[in-house]
Write a structure and sequence with these properties.
Distance between the termini: 34 Å
Domain NAD(P)-binding: 8-179
CATH class of the domain at 3-139 and 171-195 and 261-272: Alpha Beta
Pfam families: NAD_binding_10
Number of strands: 11
Shape: globular
Order of helices and strands: EHEHEHEHEHEHEEHEEHEHHHH
Number of helices: 12
Helix content: 40-55%
Strand order of the largest sheet: 3-2-1-4-5-6-9
CATH architecture of the domain at 3-139 and 171-195 and 261-272: 3-Layer(aba) Sandwich
Structural class: alpha/beta
Radius of gyration: 19 Å
Strand content: 15-25%
């Protein structure tokens, strides 16, 4: 069985490769799909085949998928991510790939938000393709908050427009291990899983964890979505990007990230990484 990990030179992709190797998958059975192979020399040094794999350039996809059994499609970051995802899905179907595992966004079929809509559209493309799939709807990565915590070390506050909403974050390593499990085994085929940390925390609790990590008092300052968007524009973002980012906070306020039922920890066979630990380890790794 040959497993292709897309975006393998990224933060999550590298951790998935690590998790596959730790679970006994031979390096020779792993293909690392990357946009720029020259930046993945460390993966090649481990005996992993590195191939060019650019979602936006379909001509790079078919050669990389030759002989591949299963593909982890890590969601892209380009503005037109759905088109790129569609290119990968089409190429996987044409290549006869047995299974796709896709890193999606939480509750995208329950709560309407821009980021979720892009993932919902990708899930629809996968379903229409006829390729067997496992959909991993990952809650937030704890590492998403590293910039905010680093700023809080200087300002003493974390500013957000989420009200008293909760977030069930987990570390990238937690989600990477889940992706590896979904790739290797057969128990999760055909399933859509909402994955999140064991604890759904508030932003007051995020501020308390940040205080513990940075060694100074940190408070959560609640603002409106409009105030947040205006502040982002004042900081240099264009209006569209500012609205998109502020819209994520609005989705959080409406509960997009607040649910957790222990699925991720049961899948891992261990508790998920606690918030403060994830923040501390993330900052140390920078």
């Amino acid at each position: 069985m040959t497993l292709l990990v897309t975006a393998a030179s990224g933060h999550l992709g590298r951790l998935v490769v690590d998790a596959l190797l730790e679970r006994g998958v031979p390096a020779s059975d792993i293909v690392a799909g990357v946009r720029t192979p020259a930046k993945a020399g460390d993966l090649a040094d481990r005996g992993i085949r590195v191939v060019e794999f650019d979602y936006a350039r379909p001509e790079t996809l078919a050669p990389a998928l030759e002989g591949v059994t299963r593909v982890l499609l890590i969601s892209g970051t380009d503005v037109d991510r759905v088109t790129g995802h569609g290119n990968v899905i089409d190429a996987a179907r044409a290549a006869g790939v047995e299974r796709l595992v896709y890193t999606s966004a939480p509750r995208n079929d329950e709560i309407d938000y821009a980021l979720g809509a892009e993932h919902k559209a990708t899930e629809a493309l996968i379903a229409a393709s006829g390729v067997e799939a496992t959909i991993l709807r990952n809650n937030w990565y704890t590492e998403n908050y590293l910039d905010a915590v680093a700023r809080a070390a200087e300002t003493g506050e974390i500013v957000a427009a989420v009200g008293d909403a909760r977030v069930a974050s987990a570390s990238r390593r937690d989600y990477a291990e889940a992706a590896a499990i979904a790739l290797i085994g057969d128990d999760l085929r055909g399933q859509t899983l909402e994955l999140g940390g064991d604890v759904a925390w508030t932003y007051d609790e995020l501020a308390a964890a940040a205080s513990e990590v940075v060694g100074r008092p940190v408070a959560y300052t609640a603002v409106t979505v409009e105030q947040l968007a205006a502040g982002l524009e004042a900081a240099g973002l264009d209006a569209g990007t500012a609205a998109f980012v502020a819209g994520i906070d609005d989705a959080i306020a409406r509960g997009a990230l607040g649910q957790t039922d222990g699925t991720l920890s049961r899948l891992l066979g261990r508790p998920t990484t606690p918030l403060a630990q994830g923040l501390r380890e993330g900052l140390a790794a920078r």
